[in-house]
């Protein structure tokens, strides 16, 4: 995922090793944005086999 627009807008910023960083707007509830992103990924057929964390910083 490099970009998504819905309740939150996610823009890919950079990849460091296995860590992906996204800019999120609006940024007033980053915990909700992280949870929403994780649910988006887990909702994909390939996302169910991944083990990952979605963290708001």
Tell me the helix content: 10-25%
- What is the approximate shape? globular
Distance between the termini: 19 Å
Which stretches are poorly predicted, pLDDT < 50 over at least 5 residues? none
Mean pLDDT value: 85
**Percentage beta strand:** 25-35%
Number of domains: 1
Largest sheet: 3 strands, antiparallel
Multimeric organization: single chain
Question: Could you characterize the architecture of this molecule?
Answer:
With 57 residues, this protein is an alpha+beta fold. The chain has one domain (3-49). It contains one helix and three strands. It has one helix spanning 30-42; strands spanning 3-5, 9-16, 19-25. It has a three-stranded antiparallel β-sheet with strand order 1-2-3, with no helix packed on it. The longest helix has 13 residues, at 30-42.
Task: Spell out the key features of this protein.
single chain; 57 residues; alpha+beta; 3-stranded antiparallel beta sheet; 1 helix
In short:
This protein is of the alpha+beta class and 57 residues long. The chain is built from one helix and three strands; from the N terminus they run E-E-E-H.
